[in-house]
Amino acid sequence: MKTIERILAATPGAVKICAALIMALTLPPSRASGAGRRIEVIGEAVEKTRVAILGFTRSGAPDNSPLTKKLSETLRFDLDHSGFLMAVSERCDAEILVKADYTVSGGRITAECHVYDMASGKALFGRRLAGKESLARRVVHRMADVIVKEITGFDGIASTRIVFVANNGGRYKNIYLVDYDGKNLVQLTKDKTFSLAPDWSPGGKKIYYTSYLYGYPRVCAVELSTGKRWVVTAYPGLNAFAAISPRGKEMALTLSKDGCVEIYSASLEGKRARRLTKSRGGVASSPCWSPNGAQIAFVSNRGGGAQIYTMNTDGSNVRRLLSGFSYVTSLDWSPRGDKIAFSTRYRGRLQIFVLDLKSRRAKQVTFDTASHENPSFAPNGIHIVYVATSGYDSDLYIVDSREPKPYRLTSLKGDETYPSWSPVGF
Amino acid sequence: MRTFTTLFAVAVLVLAVLLCPGCKKRQTIPPVGPGGEIIEPLEGFDGIVLSDAPPIFDFQEPENTEVFQDIHFDFDRSEVRAVDRPILEGIAEYLQANSDVYLLIEGHCDERGTNEYNLALGEKRSLSTREFLAGLGVAAQRIVTITLGEEDPIDLGHTQEAWAKNRRAHFKVAVKGAEGAE
After folding, report:
1. Does B166 touch chain A (CB under 8 A)?
2. Looking at residue B6, what is its pLDDT?
3. Contact between residue A100 and residue A126 where contact means Cβ atoms under 8 Å apart
């Protein structure tokens, strides 16, 4: 426990402080020209803005130090993986030019970017951000998010993190955190038991997970800023998959205290558990709130095979979501509310699809021969992190749901499973 | 006589339809694995409430391994298979003869499917095993369930045989009044 606290103090807690210290200052007079280049995502076509990113300079001069290299690589990766921009090497191919500089003094880093429209040659905007030198990458992530937002109007994902479960080659499973670019890996729990199914509180301050620390599976929570942990629910039987409602007033979770595996609602303290589902010999599990808090989607095999159902938050109005898909065993509701990602058995493999709730059209987003499960949306509702199991090894991958070019997020020993993308940046 | 002929003709027709295998309407039946027929849960049966359990650390691997054999399940199913009935009858008999013994049923799944779904399915497997034992007269309060989903396979292989072995309910026992137990 001490170790956990130390690790936490060294990372997420520090992140919190860092967030408070990062200041975004608009540099005059950039705003006037307007960064009104907003990309509309029409249908499934992805049109990306081509951006040339000049490497970071240090105090106005070119620099080859490892830190400078790291910052340049981070900015380039972030903009190129934002889903809306495409990094190009040649200035003449670019629509947008990004120049960046930083200075370090007294253990603090101040980074500055200037963004130009290549066609008109005009400066679009500039930003200055500052933070602890030890958190330099985080300052650059924040800078990337600012650039993405200014150019496209969409929220960036560069400051987000992913919580997941890993066994690191051993028998026991613990909770880990990693930045969306695979860096800054932190082991959150160090228990000699199974810790499973982590999920974020809506504000990103706490993580709820299922732990076998006390023998039977219980829902536990950990506060990231302090490392404080506590048992949330300890009903007889299974306690798992606690999902906090978007407004943060209650939770939905899976319990088996009444002799069947069903979804319940409960207070944030786990009290007043009220049964929502009746699955008649089957199970109901993996509750997932709609972002507006009006509905809960879940997995159940009440009809024979595993399928996704939706219901009102009082358990009424249960409807099967999909037809034509079989063995649908995990899901996530897009934070934008318009889509549901799910994994299903398709041509002998588990593949991930995204259902557009308006058009009712489902689109396949994983294609290779691995087994793909547990999709979780980024806060932008576009990127998805998932588990791919291939060659008896499970790893996490990230994919832009509009164009299937996944990149690998983790490469620990053993298996990484149960990814959940943070709802906010850090 | 005419009426009789007509009736006879109709009867022959009905019989022909009933007996002709090609004409029989296809019925959907639950999938059946190597274990044979599936025992359906009781109509309208909705689980037996779990009571507070002894600490899990009190449960040990049973010495009597002939009685407490693992039972197995078909893929994505949680119903007790008919072939496992004798094992459960043996366990029920043992529990009735030894009224100071608590039983822990661990529900497990194979590695296919998602971890999260299998966690729920493993619990369902242990619950349906518990219900079956309760149906054989064992007090449900003496039976505790736990799911390990696909997290703790007994066979680390990736074959049909390994998967079949891993889709199991495993039994552990604790003696009431023994050190630590309540």
Report:
1. no
2. 61
3. no
